[in-house]
Fold this sequence. Notes:
Elements: H1 8-20, H2 27-46, H3 52-70, H4 75-94, H5 101-127, H6 134-161, E1 166-167, H7 177-196, E2 205-206, H8 209-242
Antiparallel strand pairs: 1-2
Helix pairs in contact: 1-2, 2-3, 2-6, 3-4, 4-5, 5-6, 6-7, 6-8
Amino acid sequence: MFRVSGDPDTVSLGRRLVAALSYKSDESLSFLLASLLVLLFVVYPFLTLDGVGRYVTDAFFSLVLVSGTLAVERRRWRQFALVLAGITLVTRWTTYVRPERELLFANVFLGTVFLAFASVVILGRVFAAGRVTRHRIEGAVAVYLLIGLVFGLVYALIAMFEPNAFDIGPVPTMSDPRGLYDFYMARFSYFSFITLTTVGYGDVTPLASAAKQMAVLEGLIGQLYPAILLARLVSMEIAGRGE
């Protein structure tokens, strides 16, 4: 058993962190959402992707992977998630000493697979039978943000295969493949979320067929997901009140 003593606020935080580490704990959904919000709306906007900023960004991305693993409820699936997240973390941090194109591609691919897997599993938890709770809503928001991250990684994969797949404006000349990778990740994360929310400022344009089709798919998901989610949550709440 874990025991936490001291200031009440510290005790409360400690208990929530311990709960997040437990199987079948809804606190893990809150932990994942908090990690995503910090990464997307604090780290990405205010830190440059070089020097210390690069390490901080990768640290918080790693935290998203860890919290995504904790949000996987079933033991067998969590074991699979642990292995996949572990390999992804190793390849990501290895790029600092071996910034090779193949290793960077492997990291992006593994990250895409892991986040897509986590999104599906967490969505299953959100849509499972039962009353609507704060944690379910947090999980639903986390999945929406994960979708944006997944498509950002997919766009980066396409660009790594076909450099002219997108018109993203001037691309800085870099001898370090890791630096170009970071530029792509920042640019395509932005493009992914303005596509998911159907804002579409037009400063990034898909040119290749694969890039266009993925943008269309993400736009459709951005329209359908909130509508389906709202309908499901309302029906769950009505069913829960009738019990």
